[in-house]
Amino acid sequence: MKGLMLSVTLFAVLLQGQPRFVKTTFGRLSPRSFRQLPTAVVESLEARKCLIPQYPYTKAPHNVIHGSFTGAKRNEWAVLCSRRGISSILIFSAKPAKLIAEVAPKKDNIFLQQEGKGKPYYSRVISAVGKEYILKHYEAYGGPEPPPITHQGIDDGFAERASVVWYFYRGKWLELQGAD
User: Fold this and answer.
1) Cα pseudo-dihedral 153, 175, 111, 38, rounded to 10
2) pTM for this model (two decimals)
3) Pick from 128, 6, 12, 15: which is nearest to 77 by CA?
4) Is 172 exposed, middle or buried (0-12, 13-18, 19+ CB in 10 A)?
5) Cys-Cys crosslink for 81: which of 50, 77, 111, 127, Cβ 3.0 to 4.6 Å?
């Protein structure tokens, strides 16, 4: 009996250092929940079986942003799309509604945090950021030197922790310093 108790105790101690894989559902909205999205973008998201994850401490629906992400004066949408346990940022031109890029695919469970009572919640958020934000964060925290800033970037944040900025330059998505 002592051997069994010792084995159970040792097993429990070993598990404490292991990552936990939490099976959970978290708030995700259908693309149709975002009335501002062009119909063709909604249809493209639905065809990809995308749901849009929500950070529970932001009241309004989010993780759908509008801006100029691949060049100045572009009319584009960026959407955080969650499907099959992975979320990535999809960037669409508004007219015609065409997928331009898919950036930063990450497993959804990386962005789970827990409330005091242990209930997990999702905490990845995106927002459009401009030159001032990009330069301010570079000056404050260092990181890769930004190229000339002529349009918006996409701040990809782990709420309450840190972020990176995705910036399109010379045909590539650069990872710049965000909040630290």
Assistant:
1) 30
2) 0.83
3) 128
4) exposed
5) 50
